[in-house]
Amino acid sequence: xxxxxxxxxxxxxxxxxxxxxxxxxxxxxxxxxxxxxxxxxxxxxxxxxxxxxxxxxxxxxxxxxxxxxxxxxxxxxxxxxxxxxxxxxxxxxxxxxxxxxxxxxxxxxxxxxxxxxxxxxxxxxxxxxxxxxxxxxxxxxxxxxxxxxxxxxxxxxxxxxxxxxxxxxxxxxxxxxxxxxxxxxxxxxxxxxxxxxxxxxxxxxxxxxxxxxxxxxxxxxxxxxxxxxxxxxxxxxxxxxxxxxxxxxxxxxxxxxxxxxxxxxxxxxxxxxxxxxxxxxxxxxxxxxxxx
Length: 292
Prior knowledge:
By secondary structure, this protein is mainly alpha-helical. The chain has one domain: Up-down Bundle (Glycerol uptake facilitator protein), CATH 1.20.1080.10. Helix content is 78%, strand content 0%. Helix 1 crosses helix 9 and helix 9 packs parallel to helix 12. The chain is globular and about 60 Å long.
């Protein structure tokens, strides 16, 4: 077949979790910095293009929502194919191995903590240097577009932001799941593009993306306080992202394919991280870089 079946994806998900767990703290942090920066670049691209269309946004808001969503997947494409770590996708990959009793909760906490912090720093760097210092968003209508988006994200209730976080990471983690199925670079891009486009068009809340959108607006002078950034948005969005990844992706696929993963682990231990243990079609730059 030209793609992996879901049971085969489950086996590779576990292998990927072990590769990530084998990273040193410093390597994990560098990969996380890149991940946050890549997601931010996707956000900046979307802002520059759609933020310059206030007339179309007023007359046909659905069109600009779709266009914003269509451009944003650049970030996840860079993460998966270029090689980087992303907290939101790790909300599915790492717990998946824990459910299969191949990793422990302490492994999850180590990876999540380092990657979340690294993603934040990477997103902040892009926000400050490439969105603010570059002046890309200083002129109108981009200035107002960036600020309006961030204010909207900090005005929702805890519950609404949480639910949007669940929906966002359900689709992000499914994008990564589908990317594992593809055996070509083009296939991986297409597989990731549709789910990511969908969650962004819906207006869901992705915690790492918001680490770019909201600080960017703050640098531009938006009347947003740190309490609004962390408590009104990042806290509920992050909790929602965790639930979306663990409950809606890791848990059901663990239940469906636990026997197949167990059988595969018996024949070939999932914790092996040698290149010979990974099928050739999975040796994309991101996977091969992780093995070196």
